[in-house]
Design a protein that fits this description.
This protein has 305 residues and is of the alpha+beta class. It contains seven helices and 14 strands. The longest helix has 12 residues, at 190-201. The two termini are 31 Å apart.
Length: 305
């Protein structure tokens, strides 16, 4: 089990209006390892029925790869269709110019009943090195779900609740960060409070389910064909944190007495980017869903630095 350190300030207590905006996200904390075929996991062998063909991308003549498998028993917050208890996300490990999201892997989603799978596909086709981008093929990882409270990304907050952004700027408790935070924020600058909020108090980066989307650039909430804004589902990210957010989002168990950044590169990478994915320049794909339509359509939004 991994534990995210608490924020330096109780935001809902400091600014009560934030209490209504609090949501729970499930940080999945991937760590390298090949779990059992039916477990929640990244990459590796998944519960794929032997009677069902493995998907092939017609644009690249390339087999899809398993990216994420989640069991309802581990992450019920995902919200499963009735009669299912297994979620699978596969994608073609190539950039796509004719599918959304543009210039990113194109994904397929499957909802299953695990007990209904009588026999598993032993070894699905693997993409050849020439047919796939290696940065889009995840290393197998075991997941360690943890529930954490989140608040909206600063970009969403600025669009929907500009009044709360002004209260952030005036809050001394928000700007009074611990000395252990390697911040470059100017605490006398009101804009610095926005940076502190975004890095330490709002949205967790990394692989997660529910809560709020982490926008690297600006909000891009997709709209379903039915006319409704789609709901945020989950994020697949290049990294769990970066140099500007690690002081909040690096798990306690990985801090090694404050010497995480002194470790060798591969040791750090096994924590920060365990699955070895690189989506653009340290980017992520936020996935959204519309549960008003059948079957539930899903759309990805790709952003990077």
């Amino acid at each position: 089990m991994f534990h995210t350190p608490p924020p330096h300030v109780d935001l809902a207590r400091e600014i009560p209006e934030f209490g209504a905006l609090a949501r729970t996200t499930v940080r999945l904390h991937p760590r390298r390892g090949e779990g059992a075929i039916g477990e929640s996991k990244i990459g590796g062998a998944i519960s794929w029925p032997s009677s069902e063909e493995w998907p092939i991308c017609t644009e690249h003549d390339c087999p899809f790869v398993a990216v994420l498998q989640l069991r309802a028993a581990d992450v019920p917050e995902l919200g499963f269709p009735q009669g299912t208890d297994l979620f699978q996300l596969l994608w073609c490990p190539n950039d796509h110019e004719n599918a959304r999201p543009l210039y990113a892997p194109s994904a397929k989603i499957y909802w299953r009943r695990n007990s209904g799978i009588r026999s598993y596909l032993a070894a699905p086709s693997s993409p050849t090195a020439s047919a796939a981008q290696s940065d889009y093929i995840p290393r197998p990882c075991i997941l360690h779900p943890e529930r954490v409270i989140e608040f909206p990304d600063i970009y969403d907050l600025a669009e929907d609740r500009a009044d709360l952004v002004e209260k952030l700027k005036k809050s001394k408790a928000v700007s009074d960060v611990p000395e252990s935070y390697p911040c470059e924020f100017d605490e006398s600058d009101a804009e610095g409070c926005e940076d502190i909020y975004q890095s330490s108090l709002s949205v967790a980066d990394g692989l997660k389910v529910g809560g709020y989307p982490y926008w690297i650039q600006y909000p891009e909430w997709p709209q379903c064909e039915c006319g409704h804004r789609m709901d945020y589902l989950l994020t697949v990210a290049s990294a769990e944190f970066d140099g500007g957010t690690w002081f909040r989002w690096l798990a306690r168990e990985d801090r090694a007495n404050g010497k995480f950044w002194d470790a060798d590169f591969e040791t750090r990478r096994a924590v920060q980017s365990a699955a070895g994915l690189m989506l653009g320049d340290m980017g992520n794909i936020n996935y959204f869903i519309c549960r008003r339509c059948q079957p539930w359509p899903i759309e990805g939004v790709f952003q990077c630095s």
